[in-house]
Amino acid sequence: MKNESEVHIRRTLYFQLFFWTALFLFGTARNYGEYDGLSSDIIIYNFCHWIFQIIAANFIYFILIRHFFDKKKYLECSVFLIISLYLLSVINRFFIVYIAEPFFINETKDSIFSIFTDLKYLLIHYTFPIISGAFIFISMMFFIRYKDEKEKAANLQKEKAELELKALKSQLNPHFLFNTLNNIYSLSLSHSEKTSQSISQLSDILDYILYKGQKKWVSVSDELDIIEDYIALESLRYHTDRLQISKQVLLNSSNTIPPLLYLSLVENAFKHGAGKNIQQTEIKIEMETNPQHSVFTIENTYHEDQTDNEKGIGLQNIKKQLRHHYDENFTFRISRENNIFKVEIITPSQYD
């Protein structure tokens, strides 16, 4: 936060240095054209007006606008604006008449009374120049402020989306881990040869979730490898007559996807298919990649009485994840027909 504040202050100072230098040079060049040349007294007059333009612009913006106008204290802001413009104009004229002009003009000075009371002269020759410079400066500051606030809002939205995405990634069904450990424990009791293989597969899944799962993109082939491990571990829970799985994979290009995207769909198919169906469950997975798109389709049979597939939190999370990574450049289809629940995802081959 401190670094951001220092950067903001530094950037504001650089902007002011550039802006006021440019304004002074512009005023000098304009006078050069009007008077067919420049004299020292014109430059001194310009310099005196320039100093008070800087003071007035910063006072109006950083004091009146930030502390009154932004807080919707419009009446106080208007009153203080009129008073401050009058006082700054008087001080500016007093500065020129009694401090600057004696260096190059030997004339009778205006009385202090006339400096305070000659409002028409004060308005035309002092207040308007102050207002003109302050108006341009304040307009630029409002533009910079709007741009900064827009960038800040975009960054906050991005951080919020990334936090939501991390939360979505962490929602892999905890029952899977509990059931898998129980199955591995049962295998170990029977001294099954599958014990060490199952432990290795579980280790690969956890490693994938903890490390590759935090990346923005992973290769489709890596995601499919971890899905193989997941299916192998989930299959330990079911007899062959209760679960039938078929896979068709055709990888024609090395495409990338957000991590855990397909794995979440496979988990959803097991949870709402085999996990809630006492009859045989069929799960069918199709994957195809080409230089343009990645197409992933998964189907699972379900019992007639099941009504929560499409409304599952898992599918809602997947859609949020897709929108986060691809905006609207994806296809997410859900269908239910003849006791077959089908989800299809089409994403660009590469996207960033």
Automatic annotation (TrEMBL):
Domain Signal transduction histidine kinase internal region residues, every copy: 164-239
Pfam family, one: His_kinase
Organism domain of life: Bacteria
Membrane-spanning intervals of the chain: 12-30, 42-65, 77-100, 123-144
InterPro entries referenced in this protein's UniProt entry, alphabetically: Bact_2-comp_sensor_kinase, HATPase_C_sf, Sig_transdc_His_kin_internal
Recorded coiled-coil stretches: 146-173
Annotated keywords: Coiled coil, Membrane, Transmembrane, Transmembrane helix
Name of the protein this chain belongs to: GHKL domain-containing protein
